[in-house]
Amino acid sequence: MTGSARVSYLYHCGVPIVSKMACDDLPQLLTGVPIRQMQDLARAARSGNLQQIQTNLNTVQIARQRLSDARPGQQEFSHAGLTGSSMLLMGFTGGNFSLIRAEVTLPNQGTEGSIAGACFRR
User: Fold this and answer.
1) Strongest mean pLDDT among 4-8, 78-82, 84-88
2) Which residues pair with 96 in a beta bridge?
3) What whole-number distance in Å separates Cα of residue 19 and Cα of residue 106?
4) pLDDT digits (tens, 9 = 90+) for 4-62
5) Is the pLDDT of residue 81 over 70?
6) What distance separates the 2 farthest-apart alpha carbons in the chain?
């Protein structure tokens, strides 16, 4: 018999420059679409700078992969109490977040019948 535990944590990225590169805002996490990076790509396309366009394309692909990796944990937002007004508030703050997940499956460390019988014998 095995038991499993899963933990999901919505981490607030507070380092100013790094948070924009390594984390996503709440609308991006909820939709799975790298909105901010695609807007940067559109600006680069309008400028016509091919090197900047290639850099932004790479950034979009990296963000898309990061959001794809976070996708399984997004369904757990509602289980974590992140519904309605709390999500709306976090969305309006403009903060960046990263979804951190961990899951482990271990053998059940419970007692066998013989040990339990010895403990509860009268």
Assistant:
1) 4-8
2) 13, 25
3) 34
4) 777 777 788 888 888 888 888 888 887 888 988 999 999 999 998 999 999 999 999 99
5) no
6) 84
Alpha-carbon distance of 20 to 62, in angstroms, equals 13
CA distances 71 to 3, 24, 49, 54, 107, Å, are 23, 13, 33, 26, 27
Look at the pTM and tell me if it is higher than 0.90. no
Give CA–CA dist 48/115, Å, rounded.
Answer: 74
The three-state DSSP-derived secondary structure of the chain is CEEEEEEEEEEEECCHHHHHHHCEEHHHHHHCCCHHHHHHHHHHHHHCCHHHHHHHHHHHHHHHHHHHHHHHHHCCCCCCCCCCHHHHHHHHHCCEEEEEEEEEEEECCCCCHHHHHHHCCC
The rounded Cα 18 to chain-centroid distance in angstroms is: 16
